[in-house]
Amino acid sequence: MSVHHFMEWLNGSAAANAMNGPEWAFPVVESLHFAGFALLIGTIVIVDLRLLGFGMRRQSVSDLASDLAPWTLAGLAVMLVTGPLMFSADAVVYYVNPSFRFKMVCLAIAILYNFTVHRWASRSGPSPAVGKLVAFFSLALWTAVVAGGRMIAFV
Ligand code: HEM
Questions:
Q1: What's the whole-number mean pLDDT along residues 112-130?
Q2: Dist CA 136 CA 148 (whole Å)
Q3: If you measure from the C-alpha of residue 121 to the centroid of ligand 1, how many angstroms do you get, rounded to a whole number?
Q4: Which of 31, 116, 46, 120 is nearest to 82 (CA)?
Q5: From atom 39 of ligand 1, which residue's Cα is the shortest distance away?
């Protein structure tokens, strides 16, 4: 089965029919997509601001990171459910959308980075300079994911 045929199959799947059925389905799922990214990226940004030395100094970076980790995972779970649901609604169109492709590449790098370099920096207490560098790249990656997501509807 070619990728295009798979996207056509996905477009006719039960998930796609549910998303393209009642008028409220897509906006409700997209709203959850927003809420999920606020939770996911919001918790990561709090740790990045701490690594950059902006506020929250009563808590160590590692305490903050481990307290927020369950919320970050919950946000990621919401995104990995709502995203594919929205994608299925118009898979053939989204799949060729350059902004969607840019977002998916950035997303794969951002998730890998978050659970490797970022986790190391937030747990091992590197030098302030290294901590700031790690936080800077984290913020840049997640900004690219959000920008890619936002631009999907415009390209
Ligand atoms: C986990 C990190 C993710 C973040 C931070 C994220 C963020 C966003 C943002 C900001 C938008 C724009 C919403 C709007 O302004 O209308 C968006 C839209 C979208 N996202 Fe995601 N997303 C993520 C994961 C995913 C995944 C894994 C998929 C699918 C495999 C996906 C599929 C979509 C689709 C199809 C849209 C376009 C909806 C439309 O047509 O308006 N997203 N995303």
A1: 94
A2: 18
A3: 27
A4: 31
A5: 153
Phi-psi domain of 13 (left: phi exceeds 0; alpha: psi -120 through 50; beta: other):
beta
Distance CA 43, CA 27 (A): 24
Q: By C-alpha distance, which of 154, 138, 124, 131 is closest to 40? A: 138
Question: What's the pTM?
Answer: 0.92
Report the distance separating Cα 47 and Cα 69, nearest Å.
10
End-to-end, the C-alpha distance of the chain in Å comes to 28
pLDDT digits (tens, 9 = 90+) for 60-102: 999 999 999 999 999 999 999 999 999 999 999 999 999 999 9
For 56: left if phi > 0, alpha if psi spans -120 to 50, otherwise beta; the answer is left
107 lines ligand 1 (CB under 6 A): yes
Alpha-carbon distances of 90 from 46, 128, 148, rounded to whole Å: 34, 45, 17
